Every structure is written in C-alpha cells, then in structure tokens.
C-alpha cells in the first residue's frame, strides 16, 4: 500500500517528478523541514528510498538516520556526492540517470567552447550597447580545425568528440586506458593532453582521487592561447589557480558550468571578461530533465515492485 512505500526527497527536483512520486508513494521533503534533525527522528525509520540530485547527493549523517533505506535514486549521473563505500557496506543500491543526459551535456560543452572562443557574450553586449554604430567588433579565435583535448572519455566525452569532429577538430583524449574502437589520439597523461590541446574539456567523473587535479601545474603546460571548458564538476579544478592563470594570461580563457562551491562563484571569476559562466545547466533542458525524471521514477517504482533496478551502479 501507499503508506509503507516511503520516499525521502533531499533536494527539489522538477515538479513533474515530484507529482508522479507523490501520486504513487508517500513522499517526505527534507528540504522543507525547519528542523531536519527532529524530522529525521520522527520519520527516518519509515524511509525506504532516498531521491536526490547528482550534484547534492545525500550525507552519511542522513543515511544513518534511515535504518530501512535500500535505494538512493540519483537525479543525475555524478555519484561524487554519495559515499559509495558506505552505501555498499549498508547494502543500499544507487541508481543514476545514465544515458539520457549525455547529449544535452555535450551540447553545452560545445556551446561554452564556441561562446568563449567566438566571444558570443561580448558580441551580444556590443550590439545591445550600440557600440557597433561607432566602432568595429574585436576579432575572435577560430574553433574549426583546432585541437580539442577531452579529459574523461566516457559517454559524455565521446558525445563531445562526435560534435567536435563535425567542427573538423583534431581529437585527443586522456582516460585510464585507450578506449577500444575509438579512433582518436589517446594521451597517456593529463599534462601531455593539456600541453597538446587548444581546448581542454573536462568530462571526467569526480571523486577523492581527482580532487583539484586540474591545478597550476596543468595550466602552466597549456598553450597561452588555450581554453579550459568544464562541464563535469568544480571539484576537479583548483579554482584559485584557475583564476590566477586567467588573470595572468597563462591561458586564454575558460567556459564553466560547474564550480567548487555552487552556487557561490568567486568574485575573481566574475570580474574576468575571458570567461563564460553558466549556472550548472548542462542537463537543464525540458527534454533532458523529462527523461531524467522518467529514469528516476522507473528505478523507484522497480525498487518497490522488487524488480531489477534498470540503472543501478556498483
Ligand atoms: C544536475 C549533474 O545538475 O548529472 C549530474 O551529475 O550534476 C546534473 O545533471 C543535477 O544532478 C540535478 O540538478
């Protein structure tokens, strides 16, 4: 029955998913509780499923208050905000919205790359502010024919590569190993990739092992004309070192969708004209979010039906 199928929602998700979940199951919203601790003490024992966003995850502390929980269903693909060692130990399954956001995220990666190199934001302001009437626009940087270096060649990295090949770009990548069947140039390490690329695009999953991996040592080997694009996670980049590199002409610019401490974007980045900033929206299209909702719902429903979980990881 509905009452013993209980879901805890950690953070807001799209309304259509909230509506569907609420119609089928009992849904508690942690983010609406004034006193989360008291709330967890009251309902924690009833919760069987946690639904949360990929970028927000769920803390140890909350999971500890849920003795019956058997599934964490992520609205997203990044698992860095969930302690997978702990969920494994507790025998809690984790599902992600695999596959459905690949294209949207790859689209935004190319958007950031083009917006940065072709100065789309500057051009827009130039027209709106009437400056075109009195002067000529500045020259920008060509994208077609350049080298793109993709760090992290999973589904998203490969979708970016396919788009880049449409721009006649030369494609290089780094991943743990060369990927069988991929006809792009594999670089054995990040620094070689960074050194060889006109555009370095970060598409790797994040975790403790690659925290702030893109640091000053990486920026220092990048060509001065190179751009950094990040649609993965802010934690992969040493943001202070990035700001320093951008301020001092160590690299040409950056296109960023993700940050170390969202939604706080450092004033140092905001002050720079050679960066394009987006508010973590790579999967935020009507089409993608609808598919993500469907995947989350399917996994929660499967769990309660004691059926195999379609998108389980680990
Ligand atoms: C979303 C994401 O921003 O998939 C991820 O890991 O970061 C994004 O798709 C987020 O999970 C939901 O708002």
From TrEMBL:
Record-annotated D-isomer specific 2-hydroxyacid dehydrogenase catalytic domain positions:
17-313
Record carries keyword Iron:
no
Q: Which GO terms describe its molecular function?
A: glyoxylate reductase (NADPH) activity; hydroxypyruvate reductase [NAD(P)H] activity; NAD binding
Q: What InterPro entries does the database record attribute to this sequence?
A: D-isomer_2-hydroxyacid_DH, D-isomer_2_OHA_DH_cat_dom, D-isomer_DH_NAD-bd, NAD(P)-bd_dom_sf
Q: Where is the D-isomer specific 2-hydroxyacid dehydrogenase NAD-binding domain?
A: 110-282
Q: Name one GO cellular component term.
A: cytosol
Q: Which family does it belong to?
A: Belongs to the D-isomer specific 2-hydroxyacid dehydrogenase family.
- Protein name (record): 2-hydroxyacid dehydrogenase
Q: What is the lineage of its organism?
A: Bacteria, Pseudomonadati, Pseudomonadota, Gammaproteobacteria, Enterobacterales
């Amino acid at each position: 029955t509905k009452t013993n199928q209980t879901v805890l929602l950690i953070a807001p998700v799209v309304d259509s998913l909230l509506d569907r979940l609420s119609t089928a199951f009992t849904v508690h919203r942690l983010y609406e509780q004034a006193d989360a601790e008291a709330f967890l003490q009251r309902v924690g024992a009833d919760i069987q499923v946690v639904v949360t966003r990929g970028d927000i995850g769920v803390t140890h502390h909350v999971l500890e208050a849920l003795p019956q929980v058997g599934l964490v269903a992520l609205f997203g693909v990044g698992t860095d905000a969930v302690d997978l060692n702990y969920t494994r130990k507790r025998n809690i399954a984790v599902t992600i919205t695999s596959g459905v956001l690949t294209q949207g995220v790859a689209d935004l990666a190319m958007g950031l790359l083009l917006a940065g190199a072709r100065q789309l934001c500057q051009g827009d302001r130039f027209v709106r502010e009437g400056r075109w009437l009195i002067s000529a626009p500045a020259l920008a940087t060509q994208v077609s024919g350049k080298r793109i270096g993709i760090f992290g060649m999973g589904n998203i990295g490969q979708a970016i590569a396919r788009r880049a090949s449409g721009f006649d770009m030369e494609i290089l990548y780094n991943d743990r190993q060369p990927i069988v069947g991929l006809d792009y140039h594999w670089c054995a390490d990040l620094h070689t990739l960074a050194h060889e690329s006109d555009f370095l695009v970060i598409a790797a999953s994040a975790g403790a092992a690659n925290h702030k991996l893109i640091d000053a040592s990486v920026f220092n080997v990048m060509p001065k004309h190179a751009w950094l694009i990040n649609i993965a996670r802010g934690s992969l980049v040493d943001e202070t070192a990035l700001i320093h590199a951008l301020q001092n002409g160590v690299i040409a610019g950056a296109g960023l969708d993700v940050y170390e401490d969202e939604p706080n974007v450092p004033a140092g980045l905001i002050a720079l004209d050679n960066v394009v900033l987006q508010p973590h929206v790579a999967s935020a299209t009507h089409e993608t979010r609808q598919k993500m909702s469907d995947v989350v719902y399917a996994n929660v429903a499967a769990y309660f039906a004691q059926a195999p979980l379609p998108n389980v990881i680990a």
